[in-house]
Amino acid sequence: MMLVNVAVFAPLHDVYTYRWPGHLGEPVAGIRVRVPLGRGTRLGLVLSVTDSLPPGLDKERVHDVIDRLDRVSCYDERRTRWLERFRRYYLAPEGEVWEMALAWAQARDAALLECSRPEGLPERFAPLGAAWRGRRRALKRETVIARAAVPHANWLLDQALQLGLVKVREAVPVMEDRAMEDAPHALTDRQAEALQAIMAAGEAFAPFLLFGCTGSGKTEVYLQAASRWIEQGRQVLVLVPEIGLTPMWLQRVRSRFGGGVGVWHSGLSQREKWSMVSRLGDIDVLIGTRSALFLPLPRLAMIVVDEEHDASFKQQEGIRYSARDAAVLLAQELKVPIVLGSATPSLESWRLAREGHYRLLELPERIAAPVPPEPEIIDLKSLGRDVLISPPLAEAMQKTLARGEQLILFLNRRGFAPALQCCSCGHIAECPHCSMRLTLHRRASRLRCHFCNYARKVAPACEACGESELLPLGEGTERIEEWLTEKFPEHRFARFDRDSVRSMAALQEVLRAFSDGRIHGLVGTQMLVKGHHFPNVTLVGVLNADLGMGLPDFRAGERWWQQMIQVMGRCGRGEHAGRVLIQTRMPDSVWLKRLAPGTEPVVLDEELQLRGALGFPPYARWVRLVFSSRRHESAWKAAEHMAGILRQQAQRWNVDLVGPMNCPIERLAGRFRVELVVRDAHRRSLPWKLAPLLVRRAFGPGVRVQLDVDPYDLM
Ligand code: ADP
Ligand code: ZN
Predict the structure, then answer these.
(1) Between the CA of residue 479 and those of 263, 471, 475, what are the distances in Å?
(2) What domain range includes position 471?
């Protein structure tokens, strides 16, 4: 009897055994299959082929594999090993990992069903004809009908294709954007050094941190390295943090490498994805967001992670992996160089560079544009509590617009964690034990520390100056567009954030209008900060600098700083130098003093030292467990139960446990959230030792557990 062990695509830690029916050909490890599970069917991945039943499993109770979706393995040995390490690190169920990793293959399944009508098929393909008729009756449900109505439609289709009985329709090429001229530049000495170092690594694992301000020529280095690999018939993967950055990258890379450039992100249609998947072998450069990492490029020779510090590389739902860290792991398995690029490296990468694990390559100067301006700080405190745009900023805006130049207003929205700020001295309430901002819990009228659980009642007046009342940070920013249209009626402004720019087309349109000069100013959030190049922008105004600082997250400062540096980098990239104006109620904040151009390495070293002293990441490794339930009590009990189990191990493993405590965002989508944070200062026990504690553990009815290894967002 031929058997296969299958990782079923479901959040299950178990592997299931099925019988392999002869009509599906030879079984191969690494292919996807459809199998029965419970009352329904599921897809899964064949992990291994065997002829012996696992002990305790009765022959009669083994079910048959229903269908086979692939002819050959989806992944080779190295990628399989990579995913196995990935799975162990992120403590994720096998089936869930494979389902996520092989999501790209679904594009191929959809494509298979785009067959022309199978005419006059031989007898054994009869089920296909039935599936086809079903499809014609209900076009919308084509996939469901084809697979569910005919148990082995995929494998049959595949065979029919092989025999030339059915044809696949042409895949539509991914929409081409207009190309611009971008010839390779003669490299500066520093660029040439960087390129040389990268190429000298050859075909071996070699991690680099390419550290240079915006406009210092990092992209030029990636592109020239890429072109060397392409000449040798190899492939390069470029990961970018945001879908919004792909058009810009595509333009630039296409003008260099022409048609051999592929793109991958969640905004592609199923057909476009299929087109990409079927061209994987022909592509020279693939540009994509997180999920592009899972595409099995057959001749991959180098990985680039641009803006490596960006929090968007960390997936925030499902398996909470870091695409940057997973990329390093992949480079290790594939034995290829990886280049992490940033103007404001993450402290994770900075530490590895400082300790010599990553080779640090620096590009300290901007290539063409003038040096970035020193930021000018505007103290809002004296201007009353409601002021949105201060007179100095308004005046600078007026002058900029009058000169026919453009401006960007940056609105920090990531600070929606409620904190209290004194409107006369700017002080934000802090924890006496952690030097972390306290979070306002409105209903309970309490301020709480999300690191040690310290809590106290909201004081009637500011604890620092004793004067004024405290106001929640970050309200009232919605009025800006109104203000602008009123104040500058003859100019055009656009919002640029996730609420106002919902589609890829809308995004491209706004970017185009701004670069053509049809729009004079952009008001935007984080999305605006990243990578865009607008030579005519000579004024950047930061409206509410304090906001991101008010987060109960030890990375708040780091992230705020990265963002500010990026925002400032949007300014004066053309012929004219620019001005950066930052509005704040905390003009004496340490972080504000860390914005002077050229001080980045000092800032990073200082912050790294502080993290070391506090025993925080990147020195420590943390795992966060969030228990959620519609009933607060259930979530709390589950967390407490787990805490009990963990406490028994804590000493032996040499780890600390914080919690249970309510999450900063106490309730989300109707579910109460209670967290535990396990901290491993030595990075030896975590996350691996947690695995056996989590497998097959029930936490009570209606309780969900969300695991986050190396959490980036502690909300
Ligand atoms: P980064 O990726 O660090 O922001 P880029 O590679 O995009 O920097 O370079 C910034 C600008 O300078 C681009 O317009 C690019 O074409 C140009 N540039 C890059 N390298 C050179 C060079 N060696 N000589 C002249 N111009 C260059
Ligand atoms: Zn505290």
Answers:
(1) 37, 18, 10
(2) 375-608
> Do residues 12 and 93 lie in contact, with contact meaning Cβ atoms separated by under 8 Å?
yes
Beta-bridge mates of residue 16 = 6
- Of 381, 392, 344, which Cα lies nearest the Cα of 546? 381
Centre of ligand 1 from the C-alpha of residue 369, in Å: 10
Which residues, judged by CB distance below 6 Å to any ligand atom, belong to the binding site of ligand 1?
185-188, 191, 212, 214-220, 367-368
636/693 same-domain check: yes
What's residue 186's pLDDT?
94
Closest protein CA for atom 9 of ligand 1: 217
Q: Name which of 31, 25, 23 is nearest 6 in CA terms.
A: 31
Confidence of residue 485 (pLDDT cuts 50, 70, 90): confident
| Residue 493 DSSP SS3 | strand
The answer on 639 and 598 residing in a single domain is: no
What spacing in Å lies between the alpha carbon of 430 and ligand 2's midpoint?
Answer: 8
For the cut 80, the answer to whether the pLDDT of residue 27 exceeds it is: yes
CB-CB neighbours of 54 under 10 Å: 12
Pick from 181, 367, 533, 536 the residue to mutate for probing ligand 1's pocket: most ligand atoms within 8 Å of its CB: 367
What's the pLDDT tens digit per position in 340-391?
999 999 999 999 999 999 999 999 888 876 677 889 999 988 887 667 789 9
Q: What is the best residue among 220, 249, 529, 534 to mutate for testing ligand 1's pocket, by most ligand atoms within 8 Å of CB?
A: 220
For residue 117, pLDDT over 60 is answered with no
Output the average pLDDT for the chain: 85
608, 635, 667: which is the final residue of a domain? 608
Which residue's alpha carbon is nearest to atom 15 within ligand 1?
217
Task: Give the amino acid at 457.
Answer: K
Kindly tell me the sign of the dihedral angle through the C-alpha atoms of 161, 163, 165, 167.
positive
Q: Closest ligand to 436 CA?
A: 2
- Per-residue pLDDT band for 563 (boundaries 50, 70, 90) equals confident
CA distances from residue 29 to 26, 106, 148, 205, 594 in whole angstroms, order as listed: 10, 18, 23, 27, 54
Domain count, the chain: 4
Q: Select from 219, 361, 515, 573 the residue to mutate for testing ligand 1; criterion: most ligand atoms less than 8 Å from CB.
A: 219
Answer yes or no: is pLDDT of 324 > 80.
yes
Q: Quote the pLDDT of residue 441.
A: 73
**Same domain flag for 341 and 215:** yes
Give me ligand 1 centre to Cα 365, in Å.
11
Q: Which atom of ligand 1 is nearest to the CA of 222?
A: 6
Cα(394) to centroid(ligand 1), Å: 32
How close is the Cα of 593 to the center of ligand 1, in Å? 28
Tell which of 555, 585, 608 closes a domain.
Answer: 608
Per residue in 550-562, pLDDT (tens digit) is 566 788 889 889 9
Q: Which ligand is nearest to the CA of 362?
A: 1
Query: What is the residue with the minimal CA distance to atom 18 of ligand 1?
Result: 217
- Do 83 and 1 lie in one domain? The reply is yes
- Are 277 and 326 part of one and the same domain? yes
Q: 625 and 602, same structural domain?
A: no
Task: Give the distance (Å) from ligand 1 centre to CA of residue 251.
Answer: 15
Q: Are 9 and 34 in contact (CB under 8 A)?
A: no
CA of 450 to the centre of ligand 2 (A): 6
